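User: Hello! I'm new to structural biology and keep hearing that structure can be predicted from sequence alone. Could you demonstrate with PAS domain S-box-containing protein? Please show me the input and the output so I can see what each looks like.

Assistant: Of course. The first part below is the input, the amino acid sequence of PAS domain S-box-containing protein. The second part is the output, the predicted structure written as tokens.
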Amino acid sequence: MSAETSVPRPRESDVDISDSALFKGMLSEAEFAFAFFDGDGRIQRVNDVFSDVVNVPAERMAGRLPVEVLAADLSQIITHAVQAVIETDAPVTEGRVRVRTAEGDTRHWSLSFSPVHDEAAGELRAIALVGLDVTESRQTEEALRRSEERYRSLVEAQSQLVWITSPTGAVVEDAPQWRAITGQGLEEYLANGWLEVVHPEERQQTEEAWREALRGRTMFEWNYRVRTRASGYRHFEVRAVPIIRHGRVVEWVGANTDVTPQREAEEMRGRLTDQLGAAALRTARLQGATAQLAEALTVEQVVQVIIDVGRTALAADRSAVALLDPDRAALKLINGEGIMEASGITGDEIPLSHSNVMTMAVNSRRPVFAESPESLKAQLLEAGDDEEILANFIAHGDERAWVGLPLLAAGRALGALRFSFTRPVKISQEDGVFLEALAGQCALAVERATLFEREHRTAETLQRSLLPDRLPVIKGLVLAQRFRSGSRHVQVGGDWYDAFVLQDGRVAAVVGDVMGKGVKAAAGMGRIRNAMRALALTNPPPAAVLTGLDRVFEATEEEEQVTTLAYMVVEPVTGEGTLALAGHPPPVLVSPQGTAILCDGEPGTPLGWPTSRRQFRFVVPPGHTAVLYSDGLVENRKRGLDAGLADLCSVVTEAPPEVVSSPHMLLDFLVDRMLSGYEQDDDVTALAIHVPPATKSD
């Protein structure tokens, strides 16, 4: 008996395949799947590998047909192969058979079927099946196939143009794709024609880089534009490598890739990025201008913001703001630059009948853009301006572009903005939108500031009307006062001061502070001031006056109203006096030598708080000055009361002798120095009581 294979094997002596133990040992040790079938196609023997592959025990398969014990698809393959071997008496190979394992995995097997003959009888005795697990090789082949497909698809998608040159860089083979793009003939291309279609601006650098790669035998990587058949240009990336054999370059192989779409996309992204950046910058500038304008309370402040915006956001060389005087039918320049206009008008007032960018903007209610002298000339001539005056203006001025913007509030013209440039300027549509938005914000700010100034003047007049017109003139005593309104709004503050002569010849002096703003605070100030005068004239001692004011306060004022004051009665000439405090900062006594002493008397509580009022002796010796003041002088958002009192004493010591001796100069000095470096957010009131030094005649 022998098994036919592709390579005949010599028969080994003393080895009998019929030996059951030997056969069983071979099958158990083999790494391949074995199976034997008889002439009827029945399974005779299998090894453990085959049993594991088909997932059927060996004892169940013995003497059975494959169709009886194996899966349908596998049994069909084996049956057909066995039958083919029986009919042809020749080997049969099934190269790819998929088998699912017990764990659910799919494995690939290669099955070979060979006839086994009885040499003595010369008959077919059995069919041998040998199975080899080729799963790994199948996966490797599949991976290689997919990789090849991907590479081929990638190359085709990139539309690369492949070319070959000699070791010296001479073109020796045709490149039909290249010539199809450039429109060159074969002879032209072979005669170094590829360099002729490179953009002239890039030709020299490209040639030098190519020669350098040839000399160094290094990879050539470059970018250049190529003139196409249609006379346009497309962007190409080129890469070429030397093919080296036995240390020598035998040829160069290169590939050109058309990257025009990518370049165009990059340029488009760049333009969009620039546009978005410009839009974001304009938005940020408009937001910044809006924030600044929101804080501007006066027309002067609004004008300053506009000038700053014109110089920073617009890079304008000059900025101007003019408000409309409807009664005079003219524009009044606010920033007073005295801008020379093409109409020949100079000065701060520009009649609406004279044509310039501001009057045209106001009359038309539309922006006026003159991007060049020619544009300005055309617009002004159309408006009826004198050509000779216009030509003289352009010839002698340095401005070359102008913008006029109307300031409109609810359709009503308030004035105009003017920006000018010493260079021609292109005003884009986006710039125009920005300028109109800026003009709208400026118009609102101007309207608000105009209203604020008018109402603030009214409020200041009301507040000052509640204060004394003048201080009394008293022999042996000099009085001085300073009041500086710190209200950022149009509301009236509650600071007040007063000084008057009592029936016994002494002088009453008071500084008070009704917390809050508005009419309510002013009304409270007026009531307390009048009540204090009445009480002082009836019963002048400070403690008695404060006690009476407590009763008045409880009867007329609300509980949440806080009112403080410092009240003193002083004797002229001698300066003898008494003082009482109702929750108010202590007076400061300034000596002729410029030293400062804070009164250490009991501070007391604000009016209306249940307490026993006390008074104490307070003397202003001759040559000294006592200063009563409100908390706005020493306290603000950045400086506490204790620090403010320390600063006040320090500032006094810095006053020159001539200032110390004059109560008027002293108050100016103290107010200016104490407010320097701080934003005033409260009223400041100060009252000085100065006792002149005694003279020999006295």
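User: So the tokens describe the shape?

Assistant: Right, they're a compact way of writing down the 3D structure. Reading them back into a model, for example: The chain has four domains: 21-135, 159-263, 296-457, 467-691.
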